[in-house]
Specification:
The chain is of the alpha+beta class. It has two domains: about 70 residues; about 90 residues, no CATH class. Helices cover about 60% and strands about 15% of the residues. The longest helix has about 30 residues. The protein is elongated and about 100 Å long. The two termini are about 15 Å apart.
Length: about 170
């Protein structure tokens, strides 16, 4: 089974789980003056509970197999002209929020609205002094990094779509 098949199977199992939970909720009790919907309604509810338990076990098995696969499978993605290799799990974390965190840090490198230079009096009695702005970063590098981290999630998405379609799920 491929990763993508397992992901779709989990989604289908979750839908089946919801359906069974609905049936359990609807048929778990009634009044003795009502006709039962099923010949042996108690047995039917027990069967649904067992079926639901089996579905939960299947979901757990698929999720842990996906995690095992994601941790063990290395993927190379080209970022900024360099090939970077990480596990699928690491790329997922980069995609989820870590690339954005890096982008935000680089975006904080600003000129803070300071003029390149201006005149000021350091003390009320001192003559005018020319004060120049100092930057403690390379603006060109900042712009490149911001673009790199902004583009990273879509590169991860497109690469992992392919990887999920061709990578076999690792069983225990």
């Amino acid at each position: 089974m491929k990763i993508i098949e397992a992901l779709k199977s989990i989604k289908d199992l979750q839908r089946k789980s919801d359906d069974i939970i609905g049936k359990i909720a609807e048929h778990c009790a009634d009044l003795d003056c009502e006709a039962s919907v099923y010949p042996d309604q108690k047995r039917q509810v027990q069967e649904w509970l067992q079926s639901h338990s089996d579905i939960v076990k299947q979901i757990l098995h698929l999720r842990t197999s996906i995690q095992r696969t994601n941790l063990a499978t290395k993927v190379s993605i080209e970022l900024g002209g360099k090939h970077v290799e990480k596990s699928i799990a690491e790329w997922i974390h980069r995609r989820k929020d870590l690339a954005k965190m890096e982008e935000l840090a680089w975006k904080k490198l600003t000129e803070k609205g300071l003029n390149n230079e201006y005149k000021t009096n350091l003390t009320p009695k001192s003559p005018d002094t020319i004060v120049k702005r100092r930057l403690y970063f390379d603006a060109s590098e900042r712009d490149q990094k911001i673009e790199l981290f902004r583009a990273e999630p879509s590169k991860i998405d497109s690469t992992l779509e392919v990887i999920n379609a061709v990578t076999d799920l690792m069983e225990k």
